[in-house]
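Wait, mind explaining this?

_____
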Amino acid sequence: MSQDFWLQNYDAACRLAQEIAENIHERNRQQRTGGNPAKLNMTLRASLQKLKQNIAQLRETLNRAAAQRQIMQAEADRRQNLVDDLATRETRLNASFKGDITEAEPSRSSLMTGGYGSGPAVNPWLVNEPEETRGLGFGEIKQQQQQIIEAQDAGLDALAAVISRQKQMGQDIGNELDEQNDFICKSLFLADITHLPCAY
């Protein structure tokens, strides 16, 4: 079974968003300490543009996969939630980059977890995620999807076997009808020749 490139691309987009958040934090630190963040600003603009394109590509490939029924509806909904959360994160990162959001010196750990308060850290990528995948890494989600696909394949194999048996039964019935029809035709022909009434 081929790898799920959508999940790989989503994982890469998440890492890019995290990298952008860290670069914004570093840019803000340089501004406060009198440094020159021009190079970081150029990098951030390019990264934000790339993140926006990645999200658009994730949406497009997800919509295509859902339309062609390459994934189950529940999985399509789960992935749609993930993309929506990522898009929200991208909007916040853009606002933070432009200075529309004032951040009170977030710690590196809060940047890594997406938390802004002193409460327990919450991973922003897990918002609205189903219980069965909550807390799972990329490899574990991929393995879970592999198991689901294998179960679907097994069901399709069983269905194919049933259809094959029904096809064989249909062919046997058709052959039997041909033989009976041939027998009836011969009987009628013999009855015609001997001028005997045909018994029905």
